[in-house]
Design brief:
186 residues; mainly alpha; two-stranded antiparallel ribbon; 2 strands; elongated; disordered N terminus; CASP/CASPL; transmembrane helix
């Protein structure tokens, strides 16, 4: 591995700011996830025509609640671990766990978006009518939960990029001399 003292000095100057940004994002994930969880779990509406609709009637919303709880717990633990240096000193642990949680957030957002779409538009091919005409308040709270879930995902996406940068920044890019480049062109 090559070392470049100029690059290393500039990296050290950026490190505290990046760590602060990382910790701030992790702490932002906690209230966003808890808000998503709360809005979803308290979401219910009664209709005289169709009866009571609760989040627990829809499997996808249960999944969103599970992922939101997982992300809130993980973000809190990760924020503490990133502040207390000796708890987790390997950037690979954050890299892998941030990637896993970011992928779970992708699935959570996609499930919530699909439910939201079906609630407003229905699926006439399979005889599902739209539900938001009868359950307007339920749909508006579901929309709020979806927006909060998307914001949480955006935070997790940035955290995944930061942790990847930290994990791979210890390695220098491969060196390619000009003879190898010329040989590959020919």
């Amino acid at each position: 591995m090559r070392t470049n003292t100029g690059d290393s000095a500039s990296r050290k100057n950026q490190l505290p700011m990046l760590k602060f940004f990382d910790s701030s994002l992790r702490l932002c994930v906690v209230p966003l996830s808890v808000a998503t969880l709360w809005v979803t779990v308290t979401n219910k509406q009664d209709s005289s025509s169709y009866g009571m609709l609760k989040y627990s009637n829809i499997l996808g919303l249960k999944y969103m609640v599970f992922v939101s709880a997982l992300s809130a717990g993980y973000a809190l633990v990760a924020a503490v671990c990133s502040c207390v240096r000796y708890l987790v000193s390997k950037p690979w642990i954050f890299f892998v766990s941030d990637q896993i949680l970011a992928y779970l957030m992708v699935t959570s957002v996609s499930v919530a978006m699909e439910i939201y779409y079906l609630s407003y538009n229905g699926a006439k091919e399979v005889s599902w009518s739209e539900a938001c005409g009868s359950y307007g308040r339920f749909c508006s709270k579901m929309k709020l939960a979806l927006i909060l879930d998307i914001l949480t995902f955006c935070c997790m996406l940035v955290l995944a990029v930061i942790s990847a940068s930290r994990a791979f920044s210890v390695f220098d890019p491969p060196s390619v001399n000009s003879k190898e480049v010329e040989e590959n062109k020919a």
